[in-house]
Specification:
alpha+beta, Phosphoribosylformylglycinamidine synthase, 308 residues, PurM-like_N_sf, Phosphoribosyl-aminoimidazole Synthetase, Chain A, domain 2
């Protein structure tokens, strides 16, 4: 949001929608809210007595630009997804600290996204993946966007390099988000026959975070093939394919005897899906990339070492 207010706020709202959809074995987002904390607005042509002039970061959008574009981006994503955004807040704040050269404010803004969802009581708890279960990715393709976004958003303003700041900007696709949600809704509508064993949203860290957590939570390992990851950029390196934070994606586990049912739902909803690998009894994460013909071992490590 600090670098590109519209897509930043849009993907913030989209990420919160995925948080709701990935609860348990699938949730249904209902309504949303968004909020923004920024420094003094300094509206062009409308100076206010409390807004003293000072240097501003050339890498960040101004507070005025953020409040002009950010709420529209968040509202647009909610509307295009099909969820009303009914509440929110806005705050501008700056204050002298009493220390020479130190003034507190929100030059790096806070963009808050929240919402309300519902779900079946029988789907609140995720089930455990078993050895042999299919591990899939649902949603849009991998792209060279959002690389390091989770890291950049967690740093103090100005602490990240310019390259990391700009690489962290993401791209929103509310239509793809809606296709994914239609698949989740159709699975949940089957009640006890829901084919989703467990589901995890893809956010900060991309697949490199979502897949290990999905497997580790069930006490299993996994064998993953990066060549199966849907990608819109054939030039992505294994690291970029594994770590990019392209939006509107989930990873999920499905029993082998229900895989065809899930794939049929995805085809009906025109939602991209791919089986990336299988769960294994050994708690070992093995990631390979065979796009170049000969398989390249990308990662081979115990999951407890990675996640504790």
């Amino acid at each position: 949001t600090a670098i590109a207010p519209w897509p930043g706020a849009a993907t913030g709202a989209g990420g919160e929608i995925r948080d709701e959809g990935a609860v348990g074995r699938g949730g249904k987002p209902k309504v949303g809210l968004t909020g923004f904390s920024v420094s003094h607005l300094r509206i062009p042509g409308l100076p206010r007595p409390w807004e003293s002039a000072r240097p501003l970061s050339p890498r960040y959008a101004s507070a005025f630009e953020i409040m002009r574009d950010g709420p529209l981006g968040a509202a647009a994503f909610n509307n295009e997804f099909g969820r009303p955004c009914l509440a929110g807040y806005f705050r501008s704040f700056e204050q002298e600290s009493g220390e020479f050269g130190l003034r507190r404010g929100y030059d790096k803004p806070i963009m808050l996204a929240g919402g309300i969802a519902n779900m079946s009581a029988g789907h609140v708890q995720k089930l455990k993946l078993q050895p042999g279960d299919a591990v899939l990715v649902l949603g849009g393709p991998a792209l060279l966007i959002g690389l390091g976004g989770g890291a950049a958003s967690s740093m103090h303003g100005g602490a990240a390099s310019a390259a990391l700041d700009y690489a962290s900007v993401q791209r929103d696709n509310a239509e793809m988000q809606r296709r994914c949600q239609e698949v989740i809704d159709a699975c949940c509508a089957q009640g006890g026959a829901n084919p989703i064993v467990a589901i995890h949203d893809v956010g900060a860290g991309g697949l490199s975070n979502a897949l290990p957590e999905l497997l580790h939570d069930s006490g299993v390992g996994g064998e993953i093939e990066l060549a199966r990851v849907p990608s819109a950029d054939p030039a992505l390196s294994p690291m970029q394919l594994w770590c990019n934070e392209a939006q509107e994606r989930y990873v999920l586990g499905v029993r082998p005897d229900q895989l065809d049912d899930l794939l049929a739902i995805c085809a009906r909803e025109r939602c991209p899906v791919a089986q990336l690998g299988t769960a294994t009894a050994a708690q070992q994460l093995r990631v390979r990339d065979s796009r170049g013909g000969a398989a390249l071992d990308v990662a081979d490590m115990p999951l407890p070492m990675l996640l504790g």
